């Protein structure tokens, strides 16, 4: 089981992000495996075995991008700068790009706009979502501030490279599951219409005597997430009845990769979409502003989120189980906007209303 694997983060190079204080040694860290992009591209069988184990046990792993992922790392570095510039804009300006009343999760979400738990506490971060389809010119463009419009070529480059990582993950899973060739890849084409997005996130330091959850616990809504962290604060809840929240230690030159709800639905829970959240960075890092950068990949808009029946490895549904008929587009909108207090008021507290795949993903361990 994943919680018994060696925490490979401990064998990784020491953190060298800017001048940030080090990630503390005395906090619980999550047992993510550390995989190499170069070895996966070489189809190294041991690395692929570890990859499959990571996707089934924890649904989270580190991916060392050194070498074949150098340009993605360079783009991510530049986008961290863009993110800090973006959030410097005056609040009135940023608010012009909140499109929630157009039933869209693209654009800006202000600080405290989402409920983070059943008691109604509010989030402590702001973020901005940029649509892949907009940047690739295959949908109508959303209005955007100049700082983003000026960076469309950089965003395009980042999206193409991050999507390349996603396609590799899907291809390896497709092969492992013995699905007909390209089953998963064809549901996630770069040029297909989807809710794929780049997300910039900013969480300012919290008061010392009042540090709370910045981003509430959730599973990601889509298929594959490619995440870049500089400071700690991300936590996962490993499988197991008595599991405790563990930090994911950021590693230089690595992305954090995790699977989302769609992969759980396609495989009826064989693959994991692990619960995670963001709290204040640990130790001395808590006094820093935390930025993060994410590429969220989702199935194309019209893909039905149901068990795939073309693989003997995918467990059957329970005898009395009837799957909801919902396509990817509607699923993502429901999950992404469901906790917005300005839209749903008190209903935003009701976590069961817009549940992800937590139950199915956890079921083997309950
Ligand atoms: O900021 C992070 O490290 C994680 C963010 C996250 O989980 C999300 O936006 O879904
Ligand atoms: Fe997430």
Automatic annotation (TrEMBL):
Q: Any idea which GO molecular function terms this record carries?
A: metal ion binding; oxidoreductase activity
- Xref: PROSITE patterns: FE2OG_OXY
Cross-referenced SUPFAM superfamilies, in alphabetical order?
A: Clavaminate synthase-like
- The reply to whether Metal-binding figures as a keyword in the UniProt entry is yes
- Cite the residue spans of the region called Disordered: 1-23
Segments of skewed composition (Polar residues): 1-17
Q: Look up the record and give one Gene Ontology term from the biological process aspect.
A: small molecule biosynthetic process
Q: Which residues form the Fe2OG dioxygenase domain?
A: 194-299
The answer to keyword ATP-binding applying to this record is no
Identify the keywords attached in UniProt to this record, alphabetized.
Iron, Metal-binding, Oxidoreductase
Family, as annotated: Belongs to the iron/ascorbate-dependent oxidoreductase family.
| Listed name of the protein | Fe2OG dioxygenase domain-containing protein
Q: Which organism's genome codes for this protein?
A: Capronia epimyces CBS 606.96
